[in-house]
Amino acid sequence: MVAALRSPIRLHLSDRLTAPNTATPRVLSIGNFDGVHRGHQALLAAAQAQAQVLGVSHDVLTFEPHPREFFAQRGVGILSTSTQPAPYRIQTLRDRLEALQEAGADRVFLLRFNQALAAMSATAFVEQILVQQLNVKQIWIGDDFRFGARRQGDYSLLSHLGQHHGFTAHTLPTVTENGLRISSSAVRTALQIGNLSQAKSFLGHPIYYSGHVLHGQKLGRTLGFPTLNLRLSAAKVQGLHWQPALQGILVVRVLGLGEHPIYGVASLGCRPTVEEAGRYILEVHLFNWRGDAYGRCVKVECLHKLRDEEKYVDLPTLRQAITNDVTAAQAWLAQNAAQL
């Protein structure tokens, strides 16, 4: 199945990856790339530069779902029978794919991580997918990337197999900041504790979510605080489906509704007071804006976390909490206006 994004990136999503032209050589970057943080960006920039020297495309191979999420849903660990928790996600799939394009991917191959792929040996992964289907000439991976059944494949194996199959393997030293390794795990931790300034530093930009504004239950309007609604996930499966690392009440900046950004306050979570479906929704109340945004694609940048999401006993209590959040968000924006 081939799906089109807003921009002219080509996305190939299939249980059996199919390259558009296996005779065309390519430079390939491989990884989960959750967050597309500054470490990822450095790797992708180096791969893109080499592709330009060689006169070939720079493509990216990534996976969905995240391997740890796949194993957690089945109650097993990647390396043992003990269950490892599914990782909280930094981005939606949509945002990851667009970030990969912005970071220099000519096309993205999205490979479904399923039981067949989980059972494939590292050597078979290289020979059947990277060589036979993608005709790689250079492969770029992070220094901690592992592949193949039981994570047996690494940079050393990739380099060895490249000698037999006509490609070279490359990696970069870890990117650090103030002695801290920039990684998806570090970004997740920063988001989970609400340190959005550190997450911004690791990512190179504020954490954001994009999508089309959907019709909701109009509860915000009933409470006196109309919202723009973006659905970030479907219902959870046994509590293990897509879960954002960042949750709670946030000060936000919205792009896509006019020439200038619009500020507001948002709730990112499962709406525990009014809904039990377990879907993650981003609800944004904008300050000083009126209009019809339904169907429009917006980008919501999260600037500051005010508090965690809570469940309230009734709607009047919820209304008062929102009133307090609006006041707190406006105060934060006033205090930080010079940095925005």
From TrEMBL:
Pathway noted in the entry: Cofactor biosynthesis; FMN biosynthesis; FMN from riboflavin (ATP route): step 1/1; Cofactor biosynthesis; FAD biosynthesis; FAD from FMN: step 1/1
Recorded catalytic activity of this chain's protein: riboflavin + ATP = FMN + ADP + H(+); FMN + ATP + H(+) = FAD + diphosphate
Signal peptide residues on this chain, from the entry's feature table: none
Domain Riboflavin kinase: 202-334
EC number(s) per entry: 2.7.1.26, 2.7.7.2
Keyword check for Nucleotidyltransferase: yes
SMART domains the UniProt entry points to: Flavokinase (SM00904)
SUPFAM superfamilies cross-referenced by the UniProt entry: Nucleotidylyl transferase, Riboflavin kinase-like
Pfam family, one: Flavokinase
GO biological process: FAD biosynthetic process; FMN biosynthetic process; riboflavin biosynthetic process
Function: Catalyzes the phosphorylation of riboflavin to FMN followed by the adenylation of FMN to FAD.
InterPro entries per the UniProt record, alphabetical: FAD_synthase (IPR015864), Riboflavin_kinase (IPR023468), Riboflavin_kinase_bac (IPR002606), Riboflavin_kinase_bac/euk (IPR015865), Riboflavin_kinase_dom_sf (IPR023465), Rossmann-like_a/b/a_fold (IPR014729)
Source species, domain of life: Bacteria
Organism of this sequence: Parvibium lacunae
Similarity comment: Belongs to the ribF family.
Protein name: Riboflavin biosynthesis protein
Entry keyword set: ATP-binding, FAD, Flavoprotein, FMN, Kinase, Multifunctional enzyme, Nucleotide-binding, Nucleotidyltransferase, Transferase
EC class (word): transferase
Gene Ontology molecular function, alphabetical: ATP binding; FMN adenylyltransferase activity; riboflavin kinase activity
